[in-house]
Structures are given as C-alpha cells and as structure tokens.
Write the structure tokens for this entry.
Amino acid sequence: MSEERFADPGTTLSDLATHFVVHCPKCEGKALVNPHDDSFRLTCTSCFHVETPGHWYGAMTAYASVKCRECNSQITRSATVDGKWKKLKLKCDQCGDECEYEAHLSRHPKHNGLMTDPIFGLNLWLQKPIGDELFWSYNYEQLSLLEQYVRAKLRERGIDNKGSKNSLMFSRLPTFITRAGNREEVLKLISELQVKTL
Ligand SMILES: [Zn+2]
Ligand SMILES: [Zn+2]
C-alpha cells in the first residue's frame, strides 16, 4: 500500500459528520455548529449569535392523513413546507370542508437546492455547484479529506485500478468527484472553499 492510499473516505467522511460549518441565520456569516453538552450549539464567528437546536430552518415535507371532521371521509395530503409549520390545510373532496390538521414532518437534507446541516437545516458554508452537481462538505476536516483523496487519485492517473479493492472503497463518493476529467476542477473548487470568507 502506498501512502496515498487511505481508509475508505465514504466511512471516514461520515465519521466527520460531528460538526458543521453553516451560514448564520441572523447575519449569513460563518457559523459553527459544534457538539455541546449532550446536544449542539451554533456560534456565529461574525455576529456572535448563539443558538441551541429547536428551530429547523430547512425544508420539510408535511404529511397528514386524517378523517374529515365533518363527514368522516379520509383525506390525505403532503406538501413541502418551510420553517416551523406543523399544520397542513386540508380540503375534503366529499363535503368541501377546509381545516388545518396536525402534520407529520420529515426534514429534507437540501433547501432550495443547497445542502444544509442536519441539526438546524442551515445552508452549509462549504458548498459550490460544479457543472450540474453540487459539491459540499460539512466541515473543513471533510474538505481536506476530499482534497487528499482527489490529489491521490491525480497521482495515480494512468493506473488502471478498475475493480480493485481501492476503487471499490471509493465507490460511495459521488461520481463527479471521482471522475478523472473533473479532478483539477474539483481541486480548484476545494481551494476556493478553504479560503471562503463571504
Ligand atoms: Zn451571525
Ligand atoms: Zn368532509
């Protein structure tokens, strides 16, 4: 094993999903979401806003399946919602009655096409489109792991390791990162993100 080869970045990347760099909900500046006590805490590096988990800023799907309060027929609806909506307006096809019902909510990892953190649903700081794809990273450690990986792949250029254990280990990364033609571009993007201040 050469030194450029390291452990499965798919696994290592998820091991690093312990803290997140996001856009501050108050000032859009760079904020850090770090473990704190048994939970997490957001601290903004520009406006010093501090927030504990509770409010989900990301997108959600609200789903409700209930019996109409007037005629008792079944009504079902799901819709993408923002923010803290916990109720869905449902209209009964049978009697036309309209009412808001308690909805089951499921959180989306993306909001308006951008990747968010799993704690607050805030847009990740380290993300950028590359072609039709979105490159993203939860934090600087993940970013540098991806950088090391792409650099190592670049050095291996020309070696056909299709089907080898090594390429299988990397198979969980998005293909646009592993695609040979993209590597210079991905490295350029990573170095832009490493110094991103706004
Ligand atoms: Zn802020
Ligand atoms: Zn009804």
The helical segments are 9-15, 140-155, 165-169, 175-178, 183-194.
